[in-house]
Amino acid sequence: MIEQAKFCDKAAAKYATNPIKDMAAYTYTLERTRSYLRDSDKVLEISYGTGSTALLLAASVGTYHCTDIFEAMIKIARGKVAETSLANFSFEAHPVLEGIYSHDGLDAVMAFNLLHLLRDIPATLDTARAALRRKLATQGFVTRNTDGSDYRRIEQQPPPETLALLAALK
């Protein structure tokens, strides 16, 4: 990941000026994402790059926190944030997925441009799935066996968006 970070830091300025290739698909993704978010949500975006998408979504939620590992991308994002009046936006640098554990009470965890950066996609998705299960447990939708070996569903119907997310993680 260190070599990748060096490469991305060198390429960040060019990356930040690249136009979106399929604006219709990008707009659709933004609108679909907004449809799942509430103005009170606490959101974490992993691997936010230069922050362009995060800035467009942050106005739709209560708190929007971002993590990334590439210093040059973070510097560009800080400049973009400085040009806005968003008070609910924060970001920090640290390794992929570590941000999930340091922020309690998340309502959404998003990663729009992450999979191509991962060496072990299944392991990363397993980590994300475990974080989601912990979230569902804190909301009372699942419970863990006393020995910690498995989760059990509590007879309570989760919201449709939660059911859709769980289905997508299988």
Helical/strand content category = alpha/beta
What are the secondary-structure elements, in order, as H or E?
Answer: HHEHEHEHEHEEH
Can you count the helices? 7
Mean pLDDT: 77
Strand arrangement across the biggest beta sheet: 3-2-1-4
Q: What is the share of helical residues?
A: 40-55%
Beta fraction: 5-15%
**Sheet having the most strands:** 4 strands, parallel
- Poorly predicted regions are none
Report the CATH architecture of the largest domain.
Answer: 3-Layer(aba) Sandwich
What is the count of β-strands? 6
Computed over alpha carbons, the radius of gyration is: 17 Å
- State the CATH superfamily name of the largest domain: Vaccinia Virus protein VP39
CATH fold category name of the largest domain = Rossmann fold
Q: Regarding CATH, which class of the largest domain? A: Alpha Beta
Quaternary state reads single chain
End-to-end Cα distance: 27 Å
Shape: globular
Account of the protein in words:
This protein is α/β, with parallel strands linked by helices. It has 2 domains: 118 residues, Vaccinia Virus protein VP39 (Rossmann fold), CATH 3.40.50.150; 50 residues, no CATH class. 48% of the residues lie in helices and 15% in strands. The protein has 7 helices and 6 strands. The strands form 2 sheets. A 4-stranded parallel beta sheet has the order 3-2-1-4, with helices on one face. The model has no long low-confidence stretch (mean pLDDT 77).
